[in-house]
Amino acid sequence: MSEKKKFTIEYEIKSSPRILFSFLSEPNGLSQWFADEVNIRDHVYTFTWDDESQKAKLCSVKENKSVRFKWLDDDAQYYFEMEILQDELTNDVALAITDFALEDAIAERKLIWDNSIDYLISVLGA
């Protein structure tokens, strides 16, 4: 089996870190842009798209900064992280996504993230 490669993409988001964080960490916020439905139980999030579900454990959370999830059906070293970056001088806010995919699937995975983040920006009204 091929190894997955880590990649990071960054998006400028016109939102306060506090508001953005609620869309990254709370089931209600995530269900508005990331998945059709999101439920949480014992730090395990169930994400549902078109009647297909995937479970991910919330591995780490830094208030108004970042969330890291690990898919339960994936190898232990793989995760996806959403990190809020704020420029100290300009106060501009960016969202950095770190994810893993097989080499030949990275472009497709980036496109999925692009579409998801575009939708998040429209939900935020940013």
UniProtKB/TrEMBL annotation:
<dbReference type="InterPro" id="IPR023393">
    <property type="entry name" value="START-like_dom_sf"/>
</dbReference>
<dbReference type="Pfam" id="PF19569">
    <property type="entry name" value="START_2"/>
</dbReference>
<protein>
    <recommendedName>
        <fullName>START-like domain-containing protein</fullName>
    </recommendedName>
</protein>
<dbReference type="InterPro" id="IPR045736">
    <property type="entry name" value="START_2"/>
</dbReference>
<feature type="domain" description="START-like">
    <location>
        <begin position="1"/>
        <end position="126"/>
    </location>
</feature>
